[in-house]
Design goal:
With 155 residues, the chain is α+β, with helices and mostly antiparallel strands. The strands form 2 sheets. Strands 3-4-5-9-8-7-6 form a 7-stranded antiparallel beta sheet, with helices on both faces. Strands 10-2-1-11 form a 4-stranded antiparallel beta sheet.
Length: 155
Amino acid sequence: GRVYLSRDGSFAVEVPADWEQSKQDGSNELTFLKGQVSVCVAAAETQDGDTVDQFLEFNKSVLRSMSPAAEVWAEGPATVAGASGSYFTMLCAGPRGRTIVRVAAALVQRRLYIFKTAAPSAELYTAQATINRMEQSFRVGEGLPQGNEASMQTS
C-alpha cells in the first residue's frame, strides 16, 4: 500500500496500490476510487460551537436533497483518526441501483476529521474489508512547516 498525507500534513491514510487517487488541487481532501467505490478523507477547521452532530446532520440533509428517498440505515459512535466520534450510514436510491453512503467524523483540537465512503450496495461487500483497513489507518498528522505541501509517501 501507499501512505498519503494531506496537503497541509494534518492527516495521513494508507491506501491499497490498486486504488486510484482523484485529483483535487487546492483541497485538503483526499479521494480514492476503485470501480464505483469511493473513499474520501478530509480535515476541516471548526468554529467555536461546531459539533460532529451538526456536521453529520448537514450531510444527511445534503444526501436527502440529492436522493429524496434516502433513509438512515445505521448511526452511532465511531473512531475517526484515532478519536471518538460518530457516524451514519444511509441508503440512497439512484438510477443504477442503491448506493450506501457512510459518513464518520470526530473533532480533535478544533479540527473535524472526516471519513466518507460511497459504494453501490452490490459492491460494498467485496470492498468492506479494504475500507475498514483504510479507516483504521486514518490518523492525525504532525502538520508541515509553513509553505510546504505533501501528497504521497511510500511505505
